[in-house]
Predict the structure.
Amino acid sequence: MERQTIVILPGDGIGEIVMKQALRVLDAAGFETDYIYGDIGWKYWCREGNPLPERTLDLIKKHKIALFGAITSKPNEEAKAELDPSLKDKGFVYSSPIVGLRQHFNLDICVRPCRSYKGNPLNFIRRGRNNEIEEPFIDAVIFRQNTECLYSGVEWTNPPQNVWQAFMTHKKFAENYGNVPPEEVSISARIFTRKATTRILMAAFEYAREKNYPSVTVCEKPNVIRETSGLMWRLAKEIQKTLFPEIKLINTNIDAQMMWLTKNPEDYGVIVAGNMFGDIVSDAFAGLIGGLGFACSAQFSEDGTAVFEPTHGSAPKYADYEISIVNPVAMIESACMMLEYIGKEDISGRIRKAIADVILEGKVRTYDMLRLKGSPDVISQGAASTEQMTDAIISKL
Ligand code: NAI
Ligand code: MG
């Protein structure tokens, strides 16, 4: 098989730290490939006025597969203030490189697996019928539509006249808002297209079939949001009936889902949702399996571009510790998703097993796993450093 070049985007803060650890693990597991580093993040904003330089887009376009750490974003005022003096007042405007990547490559499918590791002290627990402690095994994979919905960016405060007029043609708008001054109205558009909705649904169903999940749960609110959520639900029924009759289709409303997931999270497998509800439900499930230290993700586009990254950000407050304390597992698991994507399931399986062994053994735990408040002192309180956690995983390989 042809050797795949992987674009490495460490980014900022702990993104750089956990990336280094993930690459150590890939190396130790015998993954042979060519890495090429891409520039992304705050430093390139400050130096060049662009946190996602064109050369980085070119690299990803060429090699298709990127492993991404995390970046730092700051509000506009700070962004302006930290820009190199030679670039000031030249019209540079900061915009998030994550959103930039997503839009540029149309990474419309986001996958966030949330699987509990046996022995993780952060696992969700509940009381059983006889008051005993139960620790349900959670294995949920959330398929989040990544480009549309309320995050489309189509929004107004004080909508222009023609937009207002268009809304006034809707009976409910005219009745309920017709007398409100436009300058007192903010509108954010929730947009779903048939194509993107079909793509996320198909991805979810195909995954369920391939990995033997018995059901796909659509988590929206079609009884109230009849057009957009309704579109997803209607298409889901059609796709299930015609193409995936062996897979059970479940409809849950996002609000009820947020309640059910702490009562019986083991009932859910593949979940599919629009952008915003997918964002919410994936964070909620991640909380049940240990939170940001364990939450990995992948984003895919129609043309096969794929970006793998932990869900967490650059955690600047921990970035400059002499001994890093953050949990590298989310980043390492993101690398495992990358391996699986390029057909290296054997290597990723071994890495996942090594992580599972370390967690089950329980001797080496990062500060988050010990429920400590992050500070340099956590090491003296028995927490493993980022590097020690990685060492432990490597030694299990
Ligand atoms: P964050 O995810 O960086 O950190 C929030 C908190 O979560 C941390 O203070 C820490 O307590 C914990 N945490 C995060 N990663 C951890 C790890 N690997 N191990 C243990 N604990 C961990 O989010 P925050 O503080 O809201 O944002 C910091 C910066 O990151 C901002 O500039 C933000 O814009 C950016 N960000 C970037 C993302 C990305 O690159 N995908 C996603 C979220 C935020
Ligand atoms: Mg989120």
Observations:
- The chain is about 40% helix and 15% strand.
- The domain at 125-154+189-288 is CATH 3.40.718.10 (Isopropylmalate Dehydrogenase).
- The mean pLDDT is 96.
- The radius of gyration is 22 Å.
